[in-house]
Known about the structure:
This protein is mostly helical and 181 residues long. The chain has 9 helices and 2 strands, in the order βαααβαααααα.
Amino acid sequence: xxxxxxxxxxxxEPFELAASFYLFHLAGNECTKEYATFCNQLQHESxxxxxxxxxxxxxxxxxxxxIREYRALQGKPNALTLRLEDWDNAFSATLDSMLxxxxxxxxxxxxxxxxxxxxxxxxxxxxxxxxxxxxTNLSRDxxxxxxxxxxxxxxxxxxLANYTYALGYSHSLQAVMARCP
Length: 181
């Protein structure tokens, strides 16, 4: 990609990414080629073992790439980093921010059409963004067990907390680390 090209970079809070990545692949999504073995292992493991396997994978494969890109693009006028959680928490504002950054004139017919398509997909459960979106219909019990597993493993919890801090999700490393035993 050229240095002058416009770049969108999406990040996800690491604890939430671990939960979503686990559930997404446990359900059999994206389980061909690169993730076939990983998905097969998840199908035959307990929730705790699968969540820890997922966290290890993210810590050594996905998150280092995410932080490398995040740091490389910080402060560049042609780059915009968006948090995936903002699509759930403030979809319309996040969409507008992205469209402004991409210089899409939302008052033009094409811009209005693009915005309406994205809003329609969001309202009807479509996937505007990555398939690793939050699992809103996930039972609170399963969600609690996943997060408890991550928090109770000291090494994994501290590593995920470091990434949470490095990606700007907290201004205090101490506050993030307080989540870990």
